[in-house]
Amino acid sequence: MSAAAGRRLSGSGAVASGAPIRFVFEGQPVEALEGETIAAALTAAGHVALRETGQGRETRGLYCGMGACQDCLVEIEGRGAQRACMTKVAPGLDIRRHAAARAGLAPLGLRPEADRPVETCDIAIVGAGPAALSAALRLAEAGRSVILLDERAEPGGQYFKPLAPSHRFAAGTGDRQFARGQALVESVRRAGAIIRSGQMVWHGTVSAEGRPELGIIAPDGAYVLSAEAVLLATGAYERPHHVPGWTLPGVMTAGAGQTLARAYRVSPGQRVLVAGNGPLNWQVALEIARGGGKVVALLEAARPSHPGNLAAIAGMARAAPGLALAGLGMRAQLLAAGIKLHESTMVTRLEGRDQLEAVIAVDAQGRELAFEADAACLGYGFTPAVELLRQLGAAVDVDAATGYPVPRRDGDGRTSLPKIFIAGDGGGIGGSEAALAQGEIAAATMLASLSAKAPDPSSARSHLAKAQAFQRSLWQVFAPALPTPAPTRETMICRCEGIAAGAILDLKAEGVDDLGSLKRRTRLGMGRCQGRYCAGAALKLLRDDLGACVEADLFAPQAPARPVPAIVLATEKAEWGGHREVPLDRIPRGAHVADPLPAHCDLLVIGAGITGASTALFAARDGADVLVIDRSPPNSQASGGNAGSLHVQLLSWDFGKKAMAGGSPAQRTLPLQRDSVALWKDLEHELNSDFEIVTTGGLMVAENEEQGAFLRDKAAAERACGIDTEVIGRNELATLAPAVSERMLVAAYCAAEGKINPLKGTPAIVAAAEAAGARFASGHQVVAIAPEGEHYRVTTGAGASILARRVVIASGGWSRQLGAMLGVDLPISGAPLQMLVTEPTRPILKQLIAHADRHLTMKQATNGNLIIGGAWTAGRNPETGYSKVLRTSIEGNLWVAERTVPAMAGLHLLRSWAAMNINIDGAPLLGPLPGHPRVFVAATANGYTLGPMMGKLTAALATGRDPGRAIDYFTLARFS
User: Fold this and answer.
1) Where do the domains of the chain lie?
2) Which of 551, 507, 613, 306 is nearest to 406 (CA)?
3) Hey, how many other C-beta atoms are within 10 angstroms of the C-beta on 763?
4) What is the C-alpha separation between 910 and 564, in angstroms, rounded?
5) Cβ neighbours, 10 Å, residue 765
6) What does the alpha-carbon distance between residue 706 and residue 708 come to, in Å, rounded to a whole number?
7) Does residue 417 contact residue 394 with C-beta atoms inside 8 Å?
């Protein structure tokens, strides 16, 4: 029997209806059915290893089956990063495994837009499952204009997912679940609601006028949908079971297995094991077996047959007799299907070389069981999909059991935002019946909020109460009888970046207890799934008690919500010179627990970014007793959010008509920047560390004569400051940087420019400072600074205080508030900026790239990601004080990047981030505060480039030594 013949399912009344087609995978012909996904066709043919990770050439396969994990990526006709589970087959396709080394070789065939269309409606609903459909029906019946947006090819969600176009039901066959979903979809359409399938919402925000706005990727491009109100019915995704081997090809979620078997009539393997807890796994096993697939075992972590469950079973029967009876009948159906059920049994590891070969489990008696299997469907619980909810700014809490976010919503579907509502499993797992009722209730609430006549939701409330009572009893029956296995040191936690539990535990031993620091130290959560499958497990490893965790302990919400083709978002936007400032009246929350403070110290540094850490390093080496305090762990704010450019030449807004203060402050700073880059290199060598410093030069490109003249004037000004910059022509530019667009005619080249990895640089400086005797304490937001004799009393919001003989203010954009505590107005402001990161690709950019008249900085990281910035402004959440990315800045930044480096047209945007930058006048601020000769300020808008030099100079000033160079211009005197 061929692999394909052994994996195609029959039975259940479904018959193939799609025309047979053929495509090629890794040079081998594959038979498929028109209308099925590439993932289904490859699984049917026995091809389960899809994506190459680049980490020892490991492979990954279909895992979530719903487009969230990004592990089933393939390359289609030379275009990388295509999700096999979401992409339909077509005749003659040439498909290969996705590999980072080949990503971006072929453009996606799209062009950037000159403008982004904006559409309006009354109600936008994200999702098309039970909650979304029931809400849409009631809203449309009330006369409201309703648009449902769903990423899947057909509406129905995970529960009502229809039979794929590749199959049909024979006359008189089919099941009630299919029929019920189809009938609901048809009713919604008849009522006038618009269902748009195959559309991904990648961004959400609330406009200044209070209208929710959704950024959407459609098959033919992108647009923005503005609505009076938004209902999020985004459902949930399955939590991973972090045991050794869970990333092997052939291991997938129960939902992915069900999609293959139910929608596409394909068995996940020839020998399938289903494991987890709950009735979904039982249904998956039955659907595979009924179609003729081989289910070697069903491992149930609970003990539903225990006599102690009788009361809960009775509760299920009272709440929903039909569902309870159907559930009780499943046990007999398993027996009839020949499926061996093992209760109180938990998977502990999965084994195989290139794909799954065996599943190892343990039962309640501690006995180890082994099963031969080439596919395992694991269903150990769900997590609400809250990515869009968090982007919009609605509040969430942290589930103390799992470490994952859970939305705050009331019984009517309201969130913490007045025009954002939620229904279904996206607000907390409750099952399909609860979702249907919640959709109706949320619709009534939304109509009332819009001053419209709302239907009476009392019947839906009664239905919801019964459904919730049923669920409570159900999960008493299916409560796991065994604890989830603790990850071994070798257990993979972050499948995207290859981070094992041991690396997390080692950092925990060093004192790391927050996800942000862990992410910056390991790259955990920076991959394609954006932390969906690792964040909760990592937080549980870092924190012994999650009960006190709040939203600030989670990763920041990501945009885009899924990786998207960068070119689809690229749109020309108006630009400006310099940085846009924002008020800093709300201080972001810092570390979870405040570290203890000593009673006194010699030198207190406020701020644990690169400037503060460098000050501590050099001062401690000079024998000073140094303590560094911060509300957050070291490198958490602007320094940790820096993209790592080492600037030596002026940026376009630092010279000419765009420059602050005529450009003189920025020009005077250039020698400091040059010497600081040299200091960075010296420290890298001295500390025997790898900061990933590369100085292959910087290119500022120009595309017309006016911009070329600007570059020539700028280069002359830089040479007058001792900076070696030359203007080169088109031929030399093409030789140095062939990836730069042919429209770029000349460039200013500065050989001293380059890049560094701030995620490696700052931790090494912190470690060196600690080795020299400096101490660091996080969790301390300074609330008062006051003279006390020959010292200063510094008080923090954690209820602690410390006496310091000397103080250094190195708090970046928040330095102004600290100066005000001593009656000094520091001319320092906060300017939030954002950065973009594409998927990794082959080496295409050696130099740091900037544009002569556009906001752009661009470089390629060591791991292949393109990092894109250029002072595009970010926003600020007024409730939390944290910076947040702006859709318009993402679109405009990508437009300039693609215009400058056309290879961007073939890459996907993975993520973005925002951090608070410093704005002064183009030059740093050093020296003592007026009236306070023992309090020093150290601030600069070119913070990372200047970090070690600022620290060295400030340490000298604070310890009474000669800084070794003239710094009078960089003191507060220039503002008097």
Assistant:
1) 3-106+240-379, 118-237+383-477, 492-559, 600-641+758-829+923-975
2) 551
3) 22
4) 7
5) 28
6) 5
7) yes
Pairing state of beta strands 146-150 and 194-197?
A: parallel
DSSP-derived letter for residue 762 is H
For residue 820, count other CB atoms closer than 10 A to its CB. 12
Q: Are 177 and 184 in contact (CB under 8 A)?
A: no
Q: What is the per-residue pLDDT for 159?
A: 92
Residue 165 CB partners (closer than 8 Å, separation 6+): 17, 18, 34, 35, 36, 154
Going by DSSP bridges, is the β-strand pair 791-796/782-788 parallel, antiparallel, or unpaired? Answer: antiparallel
The amino acid sitting at 213 is E
Give the tens place of pLDDT for each residue, 494-509.
999 999 999 999 999 9
pLDDT score of 172: 67
- Between CA 893 and CA 566 the distance in angstroms is 10
What is the spatial distance between Cα 328 and Cα 520, in angstroms, rounded to a whole number? 49
Fold category of 600-641+758-829+923-975 in CATH? FAD/NAD(P)-binding domain (3.50.50)
DSSP H/E element including 190: helix 176-191
In this structure, the strands spanning 272-276 and 405-407 are unpaired
Contact 470, 432 (CB under 8 A): no
Contacts of 57 by beta carbon, 8 Å cutoff, 6+ apart: none
* Architecture of the domain delimited by 3-106+240-379: 3-Layer(bba) Sandwich (3.50)
Region of residue 200 (left: phi > 0; alpha: psi -120 to 50; beta: else): beta
| CA 8 to chain centroid | 36
142, 184 Cβ separation under 8 angstroms: no
The reply to whether CATH 3.30.870.10 applies to domain 118-237+383-477 is no
User: DSSP assignment of 32-90, as one string?
Assistant: EETTSBHHHHHHHTT----EE-SSTT-EE---SSSSSS--SEEEETTEEEEETTT-B--
Residue 577's nearest CA partner among 459, 513, 659, 478 is 659
Compute and round to an integer the Cα radius of gyration of the chain.
30
How many Å is the maximal CA-CA distance in the chain? 93
* CATH code linked to domain 492-559: 1.10.10
Q: HEC profile for 315-326?
A: HHHHHCHHHHHH
**CA distances from residue 913 to 640, 652, 909 in whole angstroms, order as listed:** 11, 22, 12
Q: Report angle CA 322, 328, 334 to the nearest 5 degrees.
A: 130
- Per residue, the 3-state secondary structure of 866-907, as one string, reads EEEECCCECEECCCCCCEECCHHHHHHHHHHHHHHCHHHHHC
Residue that is written with structure tokens 């880059």 in the block: 677
Handedness of CA 726, 729, 732, 737 (dihedral sign): positive
The dihedrals phi and psi of 735, each to the nearest 5 degrees, come to -70, -45
Residue 838 dihedral angles phi and psi, to the nearest 5°: -95, 175
For helices 943-958 and 758-771, give the axis angle rounded to 10 degrees.
20
What six digits make up the tokens of 377?
Answer: 């469907």
Check: CB of residue 481 under 8 Å from CB of residue 343: yes
Residues 6+ apart with CB under 8 A from 333: 286
Give residue for tokens 């318009």.
Answer: 888
DSSP class of residue 210?
Answer: S
The residues pairing with 12 across neighbouring beta strands, listed in sequence order, are none
Q: What is the pLDDT of residue 2?
A: 38
Which amino acid makes up residue 650? L
Dist CA 907 CA 332 (whole Å): 51
Query: Does 3-106+240-379 match 600-641+758-829+923-975 in CATH topology?
Result: yes
Q: What pLDDT, on a 0 to 100 scale, did the predictor assign at position 114?
A: 66
Residue with tokens 């980490």: 55
Rounded Cα–Cα distance for residues 258 and 377 (Å): 9
Instruction: Give this prediction's pTM.
Output: 0.94
**Closest to 666 in 3D by CA, of 922, 919, 871, 920:** 922
Q: Please check whether residue 96 is in contact with residue 74, taking contact to mean a CB–CB distance below 8 angstroms.
A: yes
Low-confidence ranges of the chain (pLDDT < 50): 1-5
